[in-house]
Every structure is written in C-alpha cells, then in structure tokens.
Amino acid sequence: MRYWTDDVRAVFEKLRTASIHLEAFQRQVEKDSRQYSFAAE
Predict the structure, then answer these.
(1) Angle CA 18–16–35, to nearest 5
(2) What is the top-level taxon of the source organism (predicted)?
(3) What pTM was estimated for this model as a whole?
(4) pLDDT (tens digit, 9 = 90+) per residue, 27-41?
C-alpha cells in the first residue's frame, strides 16, 4: 500500500535535485558572462 507521504517525499527529492542543478547552471552562466564581459572590453 502506498502512502501519500511517499509521493511527497519523492517530489521534495526531485525539487532538491532540480535546485542543485539550477544552482550549478547559474554559476556556469555567471562564469561565462564574466568571460564575455572581459572579452568585450
């Protein structure tokens, strides 16, 4: 028998994983944009 708490836990796990990926992506974008701004000068 499945409990709704299992679904909630799975959703939170997905959200946490997604936020970790998003943070890494944002850092990569910041690094790239800094390189572009240096190249533009």
Answers:
(1) 50
(2) Bacteria
(3) 0.58
(4) 999 999 888 777 766
